[in-house]
Amino acid sequence: MSTLAPIITSALTRKKVTTLTFRQKKEQGEPITMLTAYDYPTAMAVDKAGIDAILVGDSLGMVVLGYENTLPVTMEDMLHHSRAVARGAKTALLIGDMPFMSYQISVEEAVRNAGRFLQGGGMDAVKLEGGRERVDAIRAITGAGIPVMGHLGLTPQSVHQLGGFRAQGKTAIAAKRLMEDALLLEEAGCFSIVLESVPARLAELISKKISIPTIGIGAGAGCDGQVLVTHDLLGLFDRFTPKFVKKYASFHSEMQRAFADFIEDVETKRFPAQEHTVEMKDDEWEELLRIM
Ligand code: KIV
What we know:
Blueprint: H1 5-13, H2 19-27, E1 32-36, H3 40-49, E2 53-56, H4 60-63, H5 75-88, E3 93-97, H6 107-119, E4 125-127, H7 135-143, E5 148-153, H8 159-162, H9 172-188, E6 192-196, H10 200-209, E7 214-217, E8 225-228, H11 230-233, H12 251-267, H13 282-291
Parallel strand pairs: 1-2, 1-8, 2-3, 3-4, 4-5, 5-6, 6-7, 7-8
Helix pairs in contact: 3-5, 6-7, 9-10
Bound molecules: 3-methyl-2-oxobutanoic acid (KIV).
């Protein structure tokens, strides 16, 4: 039997993951898993592997669209990729990342744009970045029945305000502020919070203090779950790899090797071979030659 068989069988019998599952997993001390996906085949593979949640992250802008940061990503970009992911995933909780300027201008716009992720994007929940300054928007979005995941610490949409992609909460004052923000997000109705690039012991303390699950990225083992950007995990994104990433494959070099093999095969006429070729019956061929 293939080693994939148990994974595929369990994928067929798995129940849809909900925000309630997140809470239950935290209560039972079971780690929550989350990965990003931006397209149909990746969503399918991640879902079949048994992931709890798929984030259609605005990291899309960097790892798929080639921007320097996440700021140019639009609602249209996010909805386009969300729909592809929703077609590929069956059981994971699907979370759409609200892009820069889709929730900052007014609470009304934040609710409208969050709603678009569920109504037109096939998502189950949304994620947005920020602490105390986002409480009103989070209250209004959750008030509309839309689950919200918060995101604290290194919040990439504030890269210019933070002075670069740098770890956060490293001083006692900054750590206290982060803890306060986590409590405020919980109180505002978030079902979970991503903690990005914060000291491990601070993330662990926050995870113990709040009742909703924390999902860490570069925040140590004390979080209730872990998320990585799939293109980092697969070694698909070659521009840089953050220190906190564990690479499980080297797909960029594997892709380059496959492309180079194709080029060589075509240039040396090894491809296409007989088995890649469409045949025509002799009598039809003879007839063609006759009528031409
Ligand atoms: O956009 C993204 O992929 C994210 C994760 C890093 C959490 O926000």
